[in-house]
Design brief:
about 190 residues, alpha/beta, four-stranded mixed sheet, 5 helices, about 20% helix, globular
């Protein structure tokens, strides 16, 4: 039996992902690594520890910043499908030949869920139960406020919007999340 997995924003070999980028506090590094090699090898090891060759994994964009990092993706288990992100700028054949992606798409849907790199507008979610996305790294989509009669937008007790699930590596401990785990997360 095969499983379905999701991940986003691996940014393989992107030095700034661990060295320069910070969390909202402006101090804490976005990623807890001390080298690009450590970051890449940790993500490869964690991916291959849960994804088997017969499994399908949807990578929701931003695979690698540098073309030289594309061959790293071939080391990853599973039938890989890329839903392109804003940093996936190389030619289609490079993602297929160098990375081993079985398919490359702009968006997709699985089990009533909309898959895209960037969160779509809430008004567009009426077609799907929820959206699985990346792009936001350590951040999440917050529940919308409501508009008063005087057009003032009021926010109270803003919490993560349950209609969106961010599968950026920073959200899922640099390990692909299975459809089964995702369902449990949604129901909790």
């Amino acid at each position: 039996m095969s499983n379905i997995f999701f991940i986003s924003d691996t940014h393989f070999s992107h030095e700034n992902a661990w060295r320069t980028f910070k969390l909202e506090d402006g101090v804490t590094p976005l990623r807890p690594f001390t080298s690009t090699e450590e970051m890449d090898e940790t993500m490869i090891e964690r991916w291959n520890s849960v994804v088997r060759d017969k499994d399908t994994i949807y990578h929701l964009g931003d695979v690698a910043i540098s073309r030289k990092a594309l061959p790293l993706v071939k080391r990853l288990n599973g039938r890989k499908i890329l839903v392109k992100g804003n940093h996936d700028i190389f030619k289609l054949h490079e993602y297929v030949d160098q990375c081993g992606f079985a398919d490359v798409r702009a968006y997709w849907q699985v089990d009533g869920m909309f898959l895209a790199h960037i969160p779509i507008h809430p008004a567009s979610l009426y077609r799907w139960k929820l959206q699985i996305h990346g792009h936001l790294h350590a951040n999440v989509v917050l529940s919308p406020g409501y508009v008063q009669a005087d057009s003032t937008i009021m926010y109270h007790d803003q919490k993560p919007d349950p209609r969106y699930v961010n599968v950026s590596v920073e959200q899922i401990n640099y390990t692909p999340i299975s459809l089964e785990e995702l369902r449990k997360k949604i129901l909790s």
